[in-house]
Serine/Threonine kinase domain protein (Tetrahymena thermophila), 308 residues
Amino acid sequence: MSKVSNDQSTLLKERANFHQETQGENQLQQQQKKQWSHDDFQRLNYISKGQFGMVWKMKELKSEKIVAVKQINKEDVIKQNMYTNLKREIEIQSHLMHKHIIECYGYYTTDLKVFIILEYAQKGSLSDLIKLKQLNFLSEQQIAKIIYQLATALSYLRERKVLHRDIKLENILIDYNGDVKLGDFGCSVIDFYQKGRSTFCGTVDYLSPEILSIKQQGVEADVWALGVVFYELLYQAPPFQGEDKLQKMNNIYDQKWSFLDNQRQISNQAKNLLLQLLNPDKEKRFKPHQIIESEYIKKYYDPSVQII
């Protein structure tokens, strides 16, 4: 009998896990309306740490489906006056159903904590992927697939008047199939009248000029953040550098960024799309459907390309 290599063994285990999780999918969805409790889950291992708590990999015992559970400390929520944001995050994300958005199955509480039950992304985040690649750049075909999938998610959110407001590498996750999914809706809001919001939310590196100017912000701010992600995928570096937050914000406001031709030669189509996404005039910035229809996507998007 031929010996199974380590890589083959890992692949067989992944396929077995995926089959098991798929079997549990329908059972879990059928239970969404039930009252969850801590006894319904088995904690497997730690995934990451956030501002108000940690994210754990857990197994829902009845369906045996693997999920990610966001654990939030109630005391921290009260101290930071974030109850409304937390309630809004759960309400918004639990009503979103899109193949490139992390699904929220529900939540439960204890005396001290809130637990949000989320779809588990087996292959980590885009931030993890960039660290893994190190000096080996993603191909433009791989990047085009990522940008296309995220643009479809943004288009879906726009139709539902949802603003994400915290798009960044860490909040874009990768599932078993290698497809990307937008997660962490902690800053999200519903813009019912599509007049925009003027409140400050998000991560400095990804903030648009209109946010820094405390002007009304809409889907255009999410598109800007996607432009920053696009730049980071191309060059493995942020477009707006700075020794501290203030300098970074000044560079965003003054549009101090450039193509890093000495590090990597990218296509003209990529450069043109970057200019459209990082346009300081939000009225002229591309809309999600224009990204999908862009020359860059037309030339480089191939659904069969593997991201990871």
